[in-house]
Amino acid sequence: MNASATRRSIVCLTFDFDAISGWIARGMTSPGPISRGEFGPHVGVPRILELLKRYDIPTSWYIPGHTLETYPDASHRVADAGHEIGHHGWTHRPPALLTRDEEEEELVRASEAIRALTGRAPRGYRSPSWDLSAHSVDLLLAHGFIYDSSMMGDDYMPYRVRKGDVISLQQPAVFGPETSLVEMPISWTLDDFPHFEFIRTPTVIAPGNMNANNVLQNWIDDFIYLNENLDWGVITYTFHPFVIGRGHRMIILEKLIRRLKEANAVFMTVEDAAAEYLTRAPAPGG
Ligand SMILES: [Zn+2]
To answer: Model's pTM, two decimal places?
Structure first.
């Protein structure tokens, strides 16, 4: 049997269903940004769910508690379609900006909201704005999480999360031990938000609004590299319903799905991909 016959290229399509929570966390509560966020539950989610159903693709949705409790009907539609529901904070504030107690309160409160929706606690966590705190790993392990999906230390290979790194300006870094928490790595380049969203604040202008087909080509090529160079690996794409849900971007999402299916991609939830990694992975520190 040659290598290509055993090759297994796993694709995780993930959706961060922030709705209006991301703008609120940045202090943007006026009608303009709120309307921008509500495009997600009102327009993006139904379009995305229809597309995923048509291609029969299981996916993972990271839904902040604020969205779960503000848009229960849209959240129910996602869960009822069989997609994984992961943790994405209660507010959309990154843990690195919270105290340990605030972070744990958010963890518990949003887990309860997810349990109320699905009947089970979330197994996976994705931090808002992809920035964990010094306490996140301990809290996630204490609260029973199997995996995190917020870091960028690899592209196609899950890995064990370290804790207790000592990082300072004037000394070489001292890395802590691996834990049992699995990292399912992400990347800004495989995220729709920075390519497409125009943002203007007093200090920042992010132009966004890239040509969607150029972005699509990058997304396809990252899969092709995986498929041609690794016998086993996982590529995780991140979308937001209010970003990818616009017409020309829905067209590239469908093109992406078709192209990856042609190349024999195996579509899975992140939870299932993490479980498959654990069947192949050495023990922490091994
Ligand atoms: Zn988010």
So the answer is: 0.96
